[in-house]
Amino acid sequence: MAKAPKPFLLLQTREDDRTQSDEYRSTLQISGLPANQLISYRLEQQRLGKVDLRQYSGIILCGSPFTSTDPDEEKTDVQKRVEEDLHKLLDVLVAEDYPFLGACYGVGSLAIHQGAVVDRTYAEAVHAIDITFTEDGLKDPLAAGLPEVFKGFVGHKEAVNQLPDHATLLATGQDCPVQMFRIQQNLYATQFHPEMDFDGLAHRVRVYKANGYFEPHEVETIIANVANEDVSGSHQVLRNFVQHYSAGD
Q1: Which PROSITE patterns match (predicted)?
Q2: pLDDT the model gives residue 1
Q3: CB within 8 Å of 55: residues ≥ 6 apart
């Protein structure tokens, strides 16, 4: 009898319950996992503590209302605690070369942990962009079944300005040169959102309209402009991660 696959651990930081629920919904649908194979943990609600990595196939970290490059004096106690927990977790994941996929907030978390320069030089407005695999990216398992260029949703205040030498650049964008990278063999991060569908983007644009990503009066225009964008290629990155690292007990 085939062994049951281990679930994936989804780390979330959304303080709004509806946004957290919608993020879980879209990640579940896009990944193709059954509900019992994607376990949500809300970092903003409680400390992470020690994670028994043997219980999971991999860890996924979604986006966040937090911005890593905010001055420390402007960060809430919750944000500081979340960053501390993530740093401790990444110490372990990097040491173990453990399967990890960080999206948006996850790209900054992994990059800062690894000594990259993260700043606001390459901020991107909320829209769908062309993402281009590098030669290394095209050879990576997460690129399976994908063309060299595909579309994905972005919208961020900060991004990687310079990767450390030991990181592998997997994908680039016209306005933000680091769209996807890998540390060692199994830790990935994407600036774009492989876990976000149109409904999720529309929801978050409305929820975070006052968070400085755009002018509040632009909400409906932004939503209308991306309504017909095909971002299925970015979704395949998430599915490839899940399929590649699904493991039995």
Answers
A1: GATASE_TYPE_1
A2: 54
A3: 6, 7
User: Which CATH entry fits the domain spanning 8-245: 3.40.50.880, 1.25.10.10, 1.10.10.10, 3.40.50.1820?
Assistant: 3.40.50.880
Q: What's this model's pTM, rounded to 2 decimal places?
A: 0.95
Say what the alpha-carbon torsion angle 149, 152, 155, 159 is, to the nearest 10 degrees.
-50
Q: Are the CB atoms for 189 and 140 separated by under 8 Å?
A: no
- The Cα–Cα gap between 223 and 109 comes to 27
Q: State the Cα–Cα distance between residues 176 and 7, nearest whole angstrom.
A: 33
One-letter amino acid for residue 153 of the chain: F
Looking at residue 182, its pLDDT comes to 98
CA distances from 16 to 12, 45, 57, 64, 137 (A): 11, 11, 27, 11, 35
Q: What is the pLDDT of residue 4?
A: 75
Write down the domain spans for the chain.
8-245
Instruction: Answer for the pair 127, 225: CB distance below 8 angstroms, yes or no.
Output: yes
pLDDT for 2: 60
The CA distance from 136 to 38, in Å, is 29
Tell me, what amino acid is at 13? T
Structure-token match 């990503």, residue found: 213
pLDDT in tens, 174-225: 999 999 999 999 999 999 999 999 999 999 999 988 888 889 999 999 999 9
Cβ-contact 147, 182 below 8 angstroms = no
Q: E strands within 14-110?
A: 38-42, 58-61, 100-103
Q: Which two tokens stand for residue 238?
A: 């998430």
The structure tokens listed for 90 are 């990444």
Q: Which ranges of the chain have pLDDT less than 50?
A: none
